TrEMBL record:
<dbReference type="InterPro" id="IPR036770">
    <property type="entry name" value="Ankyrin_rpt-contain_sf"/>
</dbReference>
<feature type="repeat" description="ANK">
    <location>
        <begin position="104"/>
        <end position="125"/>
    </location>
</feature>
<dbReference type="Pfam" id="PF12796">
    <property type="entry name" value="Ank_2"/>
</dbReference>
<dbReference type="GO" id="GO:0005886">
    <property type="term" value="C:plasma membrane"/>
</dbReference>
<keyword id="KW-0040">ANK repeat</keyword>
<dbReference type="InterPro" id="IPR002110">
    <property type="entry name" value="Ankyrin_rpt"/>
</dbReference>
<protein>
    <submittedName>
        <fullName>Uncharacterized protein</fullName>
    </submittedName>
</protein>
Length: 241
């Protein structure tokens, strides 16, 4: 990429950006031609220059979808660098990049869930409901990731959103997501059992998950009786608190 363009993005200089465009009208197209590249939008997103990033998104919307050589989109980089207001601005400009799959198939929703940013989880779901069905290369939904990284509050937001949408005639989506199996054959409920996360087990048993399903994992059969015992443990914990 043009060194001057990189410099403009690093400092967020919109005036310099337009000077470069005046001198080289195809300067942005030359960058867009590369399949994996740190575009000016990537650089600005990492640096936290929201106004410059917004200007680039307006001029070159396709940059929002591009992955850099590390497999990250501009929204991934903004999340990684904790520029959360910029992330929200990106979503307000164009909601579709919420579903961009970066390295290992992780979307911005997966990352927000992994880091416990429930405000962003809610915003992503509101802006792009279909993102709840996106899975990683390990076939993990955002719900699997919430349990995997012990983000119970994020799991509550995800399950609550599914239940509210169920009331709006989206029962099929709720059942599909709640009963989705990762590459090891585990639903989010079975993963919660494996990890012994009793809060998650209680939350999921009260949802629309298929509790009677039996799945083999590491040569052990997780039965309904095992889930009942965990549920009783949850209830005892709630009564004693």
């Amino acid at each position: 990429m043009n060194d001057s363009l990189i410099s403009a993005a690093q400092v967020g200089d919109i005036d310099l950006l337009y000077k470069l465009i005046q001198m080289q009208p195809y300067v942005l197209e030359q960058t867009d031609f590369m399949p994996f590249v740190d575009t000016p939008l990537h650089v600005a997103a990492a640096a936290g220059h929201a106004s410059f990033a917004t200007e680039i998104m307006r001029l070159k919307p396709s940059f929002a979808w591009k992955l850099n050589p590390c497999g990250l989109s501009p929204m991934h980089l903004a999340l990684q660098n904790k520029h959360y207001r910029m992330v929200c601005r990106f979503v307000d400009i164009n909601k579709d990049p919420v579903r961009v799959k970066g390295r290992e198939g992780l979307t911005p929703l997966h990352i927000a869930t992994q880091t416990g940013r429930t405000d962003l989880v809610a915003k992503f779901l509101s802006a792009c409901p279909g993102s709840i069905e996106d899975v990683t290369v390990r076939s993990e939904t955002a719900l699997h990731i919430a349990v995997k990284y012990n983000q119970f509050r994020a799991l509550e937001v995800l399950v609550g959103w599914l239940q509210r949408n169920c009331q709006r005639h989206a029962q099929d989506r709720e059942k599909r997501v709640l009963n989705w199996q990762d590459e090891a054959g585990n639903t989010v409920l079975h993963l919660s059992v494996l990890k012994g996360v009793t809060q998650a087990v209680g939350l999921l048993i009260d949802s629309n998950i298929n509790k009677m399903r039996r799945i083999l994992r590491t040569q052990q059969r997780w039965t309904w009786w095992r889930l009942i015992k965990l549920r009783l443990k949850v209830q005892r914990s709630e009564m004693s608190s």
